[in-house]
Amino acid sequence: MRDQSVTGFTGATAVRFGTKTATSFTVNSSTQITAVAPAGLAGPVTVTAVTPAGTGNGLSSTRTDAPAI
Fold it and tell me: Is the whole model's pTM more than 0.85, yes or no?
């Protein structure tokens, strides 16, 4: 899961991790969106949100696996 604080998320229709679409996402407010990364990501990717105004410039994100318990 990844939290990004930016602006303009109201009305988002998709979140992308590189070329893959988020498994699910929730628009918490116009400045925050929470998205679940799809399986199979490796290394850094650019995370973008698609809104009625267009697709944002994106932020770099690197997936890390949860520690084994």
Answer: no
Q: How far apart are CA 32 and CA 1, in angstroms?
A: 13
pLDDT in tens, 20-32: 999 999 999 888 8
Sequence spans of domains, the chain: 2-53
* CA 27 remoteness from chain centre: 10
Of 34, 5, 41, 4, the C-alpha closest to 20 is 41
Q: What is the mean pLDDT of residues 35-59?
A: 85
Q: In angstroms, what CA-CA distances link 37 with 16, 48, 53? A: 8, 12, 23
